[in-house]
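Q: Here's a chain of 111 amino acids. Please give me its 3D structure as tokens.
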Amino acid sequence: EKRAAFDIALDAFTKLREDKSIHPDKYTYPTMFKACELLLGTEDEDYDIVKIIFYFCCEDGYVDGLILNNLKNYLPQKVLKVILQTDILGEVTFGSLPKSWSRRIRKLKQQ
């Protein structure tokens, strides 16, 4: 039942990314990561889905402190280290991430 609900969310997310007339925004990714947390299990293939969504988030420039905190609370450290490309999680902050990962968030804050 949870997996079916997640599949619906993932299908909507996929369609959103594929549609050229609309795009993910600063609300899309926190919602998807919350869906991952609540609806996925703890198997490697579940974490692989989270990794893919995170890479899309980075590509789209919407990584922010909220997403970083959500991932830190949800993912095991070994998975988080891979996603954030670091060996030392204690030193990872929003400001220490590549700026391209949050370029749209930074642009929104300047407006």
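Q: Can you summarize the key feature?
A: The two ends are 42 Å apart (CA to CA).
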